[in-house]
């Protein structure tokens, strides 16, 4: 198993990486601001579910397919691009309905969870990151290598979920305080949609390295 010195280094790197803003954190912040803390927390769990899938894939070598196959990488990337742009358009349309004083039915927690998971799953850079990062802290020659990588992935995911939950609470707090203003609700929806669409456009320019 891992030595304590390696585990300490892994935890330090994990915390630094999870505190760095990225597409997942931006999505959670947008959801929390637009629909409250509960939506943000559920988004965090959805992101965590997507990371769990990537951790399992990295442990059992499935993520290597994305590194070796340009076609597989492109398919996952463009699925993510289209999904993020579609999701952003839906939120911008919701903001327009808010502006025209039509009733806005918020997304259910189940929908929010699935959206969070898909935002993470359809980002091939996450799969490549797990494949490149986790094995560095496991013993390559050990018969327990797969389970070490999986355990590290679960630990990374737990840390990330806790950080994202903190972001959800913070953004949800300020969003709830301002959410009673119709003009703010409109900008919440429109702004969240614009951010998510920008994430999709950014993903379109992601290259396999």
UniProtKB/TrEMBL annotation:
Topological type in the membrane: Multi-pass membrane protein
Any GO CC annotation of this UniProt entry: plasma membrane
Transmembrane segments: 44-68, 75-92, 112-133, 145-175, 187-206
Location in the cell: Cell membrane
Record's keyword terms, sorted: Cell membrane, Membrane, Transmembrane, Transmembrane helix
Main location: membrane
Molecular functions (GO terms): amino acid transmembrane transporter activity
Protein's name according to its UniProt entry: LysE family translocator
Organism, scientific name: Pseudomonas cavernicola
Lineage of producing organism: Bacteria, Pseudomonadati, Pseudomonadota, Gammaproteobacteria, Pseudomonadales
